[in-house]
Write a structure and sequence with these properties.
alpha/beta; about 270 residues; two-stranded antiparallel sheet; single chain; 2-enoyl-CoA Hydratase, Chain A, domain 1
Length: about 270
């Protein structure tokens, strides 16, 4: 790992940090690769009993690095996150970077502050516990950029939110704070110091029988989210169909240019009875 993700150890607890503060911990292909490397490292770390995940700097994660989708003559030469290749079951690399925390045998606690937007909100959804500062700005912003949540977000949020609540957040791309996130069921609890609270909880977990904790996590996730083989490829297919379309390019150009986008409506389709 070259520095976008760092892992430190405090006794039986690992602290994984998104460490790209100059870019607000934005997600690019290298950060995805380093998250996957970190997950593999933690899976084979002897004596590990809990993991805390946080973000350096002003916030947890601002979401997708816009350089990955910004229009321009050099667009084809920029590194892209490969959404077409499944690397773990039905999951591509970006989806597995989120879902791998479900498979890690020890509890994983997210400490979220500042902002968790787009992919930055999807990332902690794969973790067992989410400790959030009340003023954290959160949101599924993908439709603002002409895209859809495709890091397992739809798959995971279907188990956390009512259909109408999830639909409203996805379709509007509105932002909300940590208080509303807890009311909705996205976060576990609020804290004015999420990292300290998460570390305290991790140490409390680490003081319990590691065999019992691992068995409890395995039981908790047994048979959970059985539709992965159907939903994860559908996420990737939908994203693939949107990338590079005129409306998606217009959404990015308008967002970067801080102007109102001008979209072209799709032709009306006949309704089948």
């Amino acid at each position: 790992m070259s520095g976008r993700v760092r892992v430190d150890y405090i006794g039986h607890v690992a602290h994984l940090r998104l460490s790209r503060p100059q870019r607000l911990n934005a997600i690019d292909s290298q950060l995805i690769d380093e998250l996957l490397q970190a997950g593999q490292q933690l899976r084979t770390t002897p004596g590990l009993r809990a993991v805390v995940v946080s973000g350096d700097g002003r916030g947890f994660c601002s979401g997708l690095d816009l350089d990955a989708i910004r229009p321009g003559d050099d667009a084809a030469a920029r590194p892209r996150i490969d959404i077409d290749r499944q690397i773990h079951g039905a999951a591509n690399a970006a989806q597995h970077a989120v879902l791998q925390w479900r498979e890690l045998p020890v509890p994983v606690i997210a400490a979220i502050h500042g902002f968790a937007l787009g992919g930055g909100l999807q990332l902690p959804l794969g973790m067992d516990v989410r400790i959030v500062h009340p003023d954290t700005r959160m949101g599924l912003l993908e439709v603002k950029w002409g895209l859809i949540p495709d890091m397992g977000g739809v798959y995971l949020l279907r188990g956390l939110l009512r259909h109408d609540a999830l639909a409203e957040l996805m379709y509007s791309a509105r932002q909300f704070d940590g208080r509303e996130a807890c009311a909705l069921g996205i976060c576990t609890r609020l804290s004015d110091d999420p990292l300290s609270t998460a570390m305290d909880l991790a140490q409390q977990i680490a003081a319990n029988s590691p065999d019992a904790v691992r068995a409890a996590k395995q039981l908790l996730h047994l048979g959970e989210y059985p539709d992965a083989a159907r939903i994860l490829p559908a996420e990737a297919a939908s994203q693939r169909a949107l990338l590079g379309t005129p409306n998606q390019r217009e959404a990015v150009a308008a967002g970067i240019g801080k102007r109102k986008p001008v979209f072209v409506d799709m032709p009306a389709q006949e309704q089948t009875p």
